[in-house]
Give the backbone structure.
Amino acid sequence: MKIHEYQARELLAKAGIAVPPARVVESAAEVAAAFDSNAVPLQVVKAQVFAGGRGKAGFVKLVKSAAEAQVAADFMFKNRMVSVQTGPEGIAVKKVLIAAAVDIAHEYYMGLVLDRAKATVSVIASAEGGVEIETVAHQRPEAIIREALHPALGLQGFAARRVAGRLGFTGRQASEVSQLLLKLAALYAQYDCSIVEINPLVLTKDGKVLAIDAKINFDDSALFRHPDILAMADPAEHDPLELRASKANLNYIKLDGDIACLVNGAGLAMATMDVVQLNGGKPANFLDVGGGVKPEGAVEAFRILLSDSKVRGVLVNIFGGIARCDLIAEALISAGREVGFKVPVVVRLEGTNVQAARDILAGARSELPTLQSAMDLNDAARKIVAATR
Amino acid sequence: MSILVDKNTRVICQGITGGGGGAFHTKGCLDYGTQMVGGTSPGKGGTKDANGLPIFDTVEQARKATGADATMIFVPPPFAADAICEAAAEGIRLIVAITEGIPVLDMVRAKKFLAEFGDQVTLVGPNCPGVITPGECKIGIMPGYIHTPPAPGKRRVGIISRSGTLTYEAVWQTTQLGWSQSTCVGIGGDPVKGLDFVEVLAMFQADVQTDAIIMIGEIGGTAEEAAADYVQKHVTKPVAGFIAGRTAPPGKRMGHAGAIISGGEGTAESKIQAMRAAGITVADSPADIGRALNMAMRG
């Protein structure tokens, strides 16, 4: 789960990490008051959206007065933000953060993330902050400091001091930065985060260490023990179809192609998208209906797929193990009766109860005029791509 | 031989009574011929399940009474890491964790706990379909009938996979092409897990009843790259493979908790390239995994 920058700043502040004063507003009318309450001459107006690329899109603006803040915020509320991460239709801005700007002496990067190969969490830090850490890692790997946490004990004091020292801090500032890092690691563990990052962490010209921008994501599997975090989720930032799917226990991710896929199993669902593309088509979604799918869930899956107006064809790929082919066949017919398949449907079924499923579909031939059966996944992909051309 | 499990493996199910599938799949394993000898469900010790298997409150009691050396875990996510640690502490040799959705930090700690037992305990999963040695022992949720037990004249493939349904695809295709399977190991779709590709590759390389190997990976992490390196250096048997997720967009979690491209790492291209460079025959389509195996066999 993701949260907004302003929410991440609140969690940092609660953990005792210094952040510059800021206010979040939800309408243009609140902007001037927010600027005044921050009470510094130079401030930053930042759109609160999950997508990156805000700066280039003009959705982060430095302002010198309440009037300038107003202009910047008005622009953000009225226009959809389009960046490399949003797709051409862009996203609407619902909240804007107005934060005090600081006099920066140096920018650092400080984060924690799971290190899969080591099976523990690692600190990632760099004295070259303020830019994408991936870019630094790629271009100057020697500028990245890594410190693996002890899997059970977490970040130890000496290890935090080591990181601060390697970042070039000395004396009182080194203590301050290692304390900050220990708080950050404690926050990661306390809330079952999947990534915590401060970028930039800045040293101000008057010697203060402040977190300017923060990103925190959480382990979805651990949300059951963090109702306070779950309450921070912003449904407006999610695709409505994805929200609807998650309510029906379906694992659905919307993509920008036009061939819908209904599959059981995450690996097979990914592979089905791949094979559609291999045959010259573009997948409209990832959808894993899961092994334990019930008839109602399967029908809802078809409803969701067909409510994406871009969809020009549906590919059903089931390898019945726990999931039963006959149940999917019945769902296909129910969905056909309810919403009707105006687009071509290609079905490839294998595994548990496959013969029963084929009989069911054969018996409903007249009800599903756009239905074709396929021998295997290659055949299925070729057929659906041909049918949607 | 085979690896990990055979006809002598004695298995309990932790979470045998719950709605997580323990009851259903215990019956499936029994029907396949696995020596299921009991199960645990805290608070229900002293009763029996629908198949007449004894239920215990603790793994300690279950192990003493049944002599089990393996466990299949269906315990719900909040308690599953504890169940894994319990099995290790009681001397269970093989832990197969089926449960999906265990918090990552729970697994980080459990893995550290297991490390203290060295090679006396092996964890498979979590979030995996399990392990099967066809004709001898099935621990997990895979449909048994698609597999082919080794028989005279049939070549034997060992399969390692991060995905359940793609394993079934590979099993089905190799069965159709006249192969049998020595053992199939679903290592699971989580970012922190027990056995990974490299360890299972080493087992298959050493197993005299495995003639060739299929490895099925997906986006996320760098385990496939490490596996490719291992194959190049240490594996003399033919290896075929497939990687799912070429079309997956970066930053999106594709179903499995571990299937995510982040920071430019974990792409399908990187994995496919590393595998091909190591001499592994990688299928472009999941429908061609069996044929890729035949090609790898021909060299």
